[in-house]
């Protein structure tokens, strides 16, 4: 798997797929909705604070920083959501 941390406005490359930060946040929300896991549990598995994940999902924060977005992308890829 290839994960490239983009600069602002670019997308993450994952193998042959290209995902924007907006698409990754939508995938995180879908994962939460479909699995019933809590934000706290998912945030812990990603390696971020629960409040950070909540802000991402509620659009209260600018797009995630590159490194944290890469962690989220890795988590979603392993879970089969990317």
Textual characterization of the structure:
The chain has 82 residues and is mainly alpha-helical. It has a single domain, classed as 434 Repressor (Amino-terminal Domain). 55% of the residues lie in helices and 7% in strands. It is built from four helices and two strands; from the N terminus they run E-E-H-H-H-H. The chain has a two-stranded antiparallel ribbon with strand order 1-2. Strand 1 (12-14) and strand 2 form a beta hairpin. Helix 1 (21-35) crosses helix 4. The N and C termini lie close together (12 Å).
Quick overview of this protein structure:
The chain has helices at 21-35, 39-46, 50-57, 66-79, and strands spanning 12-14, 17-19. With 82 residues, it is mostly helical.
Estimated helix fraction: 40-55%
CA-to-CA gap between the ends?
12 Å
- Please give the number of β-strands: 2
Largest sheet, spatial ordering of strands: 1-2
Helix-strand category: mainly alpha
So what's the CATH class? Mainly Alpha
CATH topology: 434 Repressor (Amino-terminal Domain)
Total individual domains: 1
CATH architecture label name:
Orthogonal Bundle
Largest sheet: 2 strands, antiparallel
Which residue ranges are poorly predicted, with pLDDT under 50 across at least 5 consecutive positions?
A: 1-18
Radius of gyration: 12 Å
What's the pLDDT, averaged over the residues? 79
Entry keywords:
434 Repressor (Amino-terminal Domain); mainly alpha; 4 helices; 55% helix; globular; 82 residues; two-stranded antiparallel ribbon
């Amino acid at each position: 798997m290839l994960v490239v941390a983009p600069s602002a406005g670019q997308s993450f490359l994952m193998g042959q797929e290209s995902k924007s930060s907006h698409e990754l946040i939508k995938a995180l929300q879908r994962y939460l909705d479909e699995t019933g896991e809590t934000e706290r549990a998912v945030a812990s598995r990603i390696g971020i604070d629960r409040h950070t994940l909540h802000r991402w999902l509620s659009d209260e924060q600018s797009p995630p920083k590159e490194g944290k977005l890469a962690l989220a992308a890795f988590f979603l890829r392993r879970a089969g959501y990317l």
